Amino acid sequence: MSTIIKLILKEWIRFFIGSVLVLLIVLSLGHVLNALLKDSSGFKIILESLFLETPSFMVKIFPVSCLVASLFSINKLKNRNELTAIFASGFSRRNFILTIGIIGGIIGVLLFFINAYLVPSAKHRLDQITNNQNVASPKDSIQKSSISINALNSGKIWFKGQDYFFSYSSFDKKTNTLYNLTLYYYDKNFKFTEQISAAYAEYQNEDNWLLHRELHYTNLDNKTFPSVRYFKSSSIKIRETLSDFRQINADISTLNIWKLYDYINVLKSNGINYSEYFVTFLDKFSSGFTCLVLSILASIALFNPNRRNSSFGKNVALVLSFTFIYWFIYSYFLTLGQTSRIPALTATFGVPSLFALYLAFYFFYHRKLR
C-alpha cells in the first residue's frame, strides 16, 4: 500500500469514526429523553433498549457518515495543500475515487450484515422486553413469540392451545384471513382425536371464523379407519385473537434475511400482497449500496482542489441539510413501497440510484480530467 493511499484512508477513517460517534450520541440522547418522557420504566430497561436500538441507528448513521468522511477528509487535504501535491505526484483522480470507493464498499458490506442479521436479532429481543411490560404473563408472551418465529423453519406458524395445536402459513391483515390452516385436537390423555384443515379462514366476529374448503378428520383415536368429511364452508371458534395474528406479522420483521425471504415466498404462493416484507428485504441490500454511493458522491470536490473554494462552514451546512433531506426522502420512499404505491425496487434503490446516475453524468462530463 502506497504512502498516498495510507494518507487518504487515515483521514477518511478518522472522520468516519468521528461522524459515527457524534450522530450516535445525538440519536441516543433523543432516544433516552423520549423514553424518560413517555415511559415509567426503570433506567436500566431504558439503557437496555438503547443498546438494542443501536444496530438500527447504525443503518441510518453509516451512509451519512460515509458522506461526511469523504467530504471532510478531502476538505482537510485541500486546506493543507496535500491534495494538490497528491495530484502533482501523478496519483490520478480515478485512483483517489477508487480508494474511497473501496473503503465505502467495505463499510457497505459491514452495514449489510448489521442490517441483515444483527438488527432483526436485536429487534426480536426488544419486542420481548416490550411484551414483558405490556402483558400480565411475560413468560407466556415470550414463549408464543419465539414459537411463531422458530416454526417458520418448517414453512408454517404454530400455536399451542389448551386442547389443540394450530398452524397456518400466512395471515393477511388487510382482509383478516388465515391461509392454509390446520387444527390438531387432542384429549386429556394427549391422544390425537381429530383434525381440521382448510384452504383459508375469514374472520367473522369475536372468536368466530368461516372456513373454506374444509376437510374434517374424526375418529382418529380409535383402531378403526378415520372418518373424513368435506365442507365447502363452515364456522369454527378459534381462541386466538386478531391482535395475536397481527403481533406475529410484526414478529416477521425480526427474521434474518434468508428466513424473511422464505416467508415472502410463502406469501407469494398464497397470493398475498408481500410488498411490506419485500421492501424490508431489499432495504438490507440498498443500505449497503447507499454507503458506496455517498462515499463517492463527495469526491466531486476533487475536480476543484483549490483550498480557496472550500469552506468548513459551508460543508457543515451541506451535511446537515443533506442528512435531513436524505433521511426524509428515503423514509418516505420506503413507506410508499410498503403500502404498494410504488414498486419495492423503486422504494429501496430509487434514491441511491439517482445519486449514482448523477455521479455517472458528472464523471463523464469531467472524463478528460485524469
Structure description:
The chain has 370 residues and is α+β, with helices and mostly antiparallel strands. It has 2 domains: 3-134 and 273-365, no CATH class; 162-238, no CATH class. It contains 10 helices and 7 strands. The protein has helices at residues 3-38, 43-79, 82-88, 93-134, 138-150, 242-251, 257-269, 275-297, 312-338, 344-365; strands at 157-160, 164-168, 170-172, 177-186, 192-205, 208-218, 227-237. Strands 1, 2, 3, 4, 5, 6 and 7 form a 7-stranded antiparallel sheet that branches. Helix 1 (3-38) packs parallel to helix 4 (93-134), helix 2 (43-79) runs antiparallel to helix 4 and helix 4 runs antiparallel to helix 8. The longest helix is centred in the N-terminal third of the chain and has 42 residues, at 93-134. The protein is elongated, with a radius of gyration of 27 Å. The model is unreliable at 135-151 (pLDDT under 50).
The end-to-end distance, rounded to whole angstroms, is 21 Å
**Mind describing the biggest β-sheet?**
7 strands, antiparallel
How many beta strands in the DSSP annotation?
Answer: 7
Tell me what portion of residues adopts beta-strand conformation: 15-25%
Radius of gyration: 27 Å
Choose one word for the global shape: elongated
Query: What ranges have pLDDT less than 50 throughout 5 or more consecutive residues?
Result: 135-151
| SSE string, helices as H and strands as E | HHHHHEEEEEEEHHHHH
* Helix count, DSSP H or I runs of 4 or more residues: 10
Mean pLDDT: 80
Helix content: 55-70%
